[in-house]
């Protein structure tokens, strides 16, 4: 035992030293952001900028339909920031008492028609989507892009018969890109992000269903101070510039 004691002491000191060296590496902070699927590209870029300006911070995103994200939050999912693609789902989050403080609108968005590259079906407007023989896809009604699609149909008198109703706008876009659909109602920003893979057809009726995008800190956020810093960054001139580049309108 006397012979072993020095060796054991040396091992203990080495372990302590290793622990003290590892501590700073474990000192980073992770900010978890729940954001609407249509924010994938713009928030991805903003997240990288935010990390570059805040040493040791990692921004982790969960991009889905806003309604699915609200459901996760109300069921106890942990996040720091919630950004919705419409006011209705942010209101649900507020009613469910899962956000902290007053949400702020940081952008707007409107619908466009995504069609195959070259627009082989000759789609020129919303009314064309009601033609026989076309496979059209939209978002489900509870999803912001689906709610907007319903509004433009009601205001225009055009009734669509979609082949499917998807759970987020990226799924609609994917069906058009893959050729499973001839056309889909997506946001202007999504069609813009897929330029070169799909074509975008604007239609005037979209002005009747412009979506506000609100952002808020989540209640009991693990990184509350950092969450506030990120929401301020999104609302800043730098944030607005990145959003405008993606095709979003000003609040």
Automatic annotation (TrEMBL):
The GO terms describing molecular function are:
metal ion binding; molybdate ion binding
Which GO terms of type biological process are on file? molybdate ion transport
What is the scientific name of the source organism? Amycolatopsis orientalis
Q: Which family does it belong to?
A: Belongs to the bacterial solute-binding protein ModA family.
Leader sequence residues: 1-22
Q: Report residues binding molybdate.
A: 38, 66, 169, 187
Q: Could you tell me which Gene3D superfamilies the record lists for this protein?
A: Periplasmic binding protein-like II
Q: Does the keyword Aminoacyl-tRNA synthetase apply?
A: no
**Full protein name:** Molybdate ABC transporter substrate-binding protein
Protein keywords = Metal-binding, Molybdenum, Signal
Q: Which NCBIfam families did the record assign? A: modA
> Which PANTHER family does the entry link to?
MOLYBDATE-BINDING PERIPLASMIC PROTEIN, SULFATE-BINDING PROTEIN
InterPro entries, A to Z: ModA, ModA/WtpA
